[in-house]
Amino acid sequence: MQTSRQHDGTLVIETLISKKGEWILANVNCTAYCRVNYNPENWQRLLSQLETNPDRIPLMNRAQLIDDAFNLARAKLVNVTLALNSTRFLRKEKAFLPWESAVRNLGYFVLMFDRSEVYGPMQLYLRHQVEELYNFFKNHTDNSTVPENHSLQHNQITAIEVACFSGLLDCIEMATAMFADWMNTNPTNKYGLG
């Protein structure tokens, strides 16, 4: 590996060689405060790994790959398609950090494409991605309980927010039923005092 430091202090790795067809992951477990960009072939290998067996990549790095891809796309250093593709593995992801990274970064695109022809397909994509996560928490949600694990508690909230926002029918029906129940049981609503 050869490194050089640019005049702005950025450390650039000139050469990093992997075995043929294998991916390289830099900043394992995100121990350094930096963005990592890869060549297109390595990005594709990493994204393929995320889709086939994401657990080979540490949890922190799964979140960081999404965050790096979106930030590098906003800086026009990688294609926006690559950033969007970095979220494809989420359909099977249950951990909070990758979802939090994706939701935070996709918020920019949701605002950017609001009221455009891209908005509908984006909601459809999000609905497809979040459905399995929403169903993972369905028993907790339907019974108004939360998981014991703090990280899963946060991800339950994320699942509900994304599922209802994207129009997942189960989520909308659950929210509508819970709101109706609250309206019927809240004494201030019964007497019009609220």
UniProtKB/TrEMBL annotation:
Top-level division of the source organism's lineage: Eukaryota
Coiled-coil region: none
Stored InterPro entries: ERAP1-like_C_dom, Peptidase_M1_aminopeptidases
Residues annotated as domain ERAP1-like C-terminal: 23-186
PANTHER family, alphabetized: AMINOPEPTIDASE, PROTEASE M1 ZINC METALLOPROTEASE
Family of the protein in this entry: Belongs to the peptidase M1 family.
Protein's name according to its UniProt entry: ERAP1-like C-terminal domain-containing protein
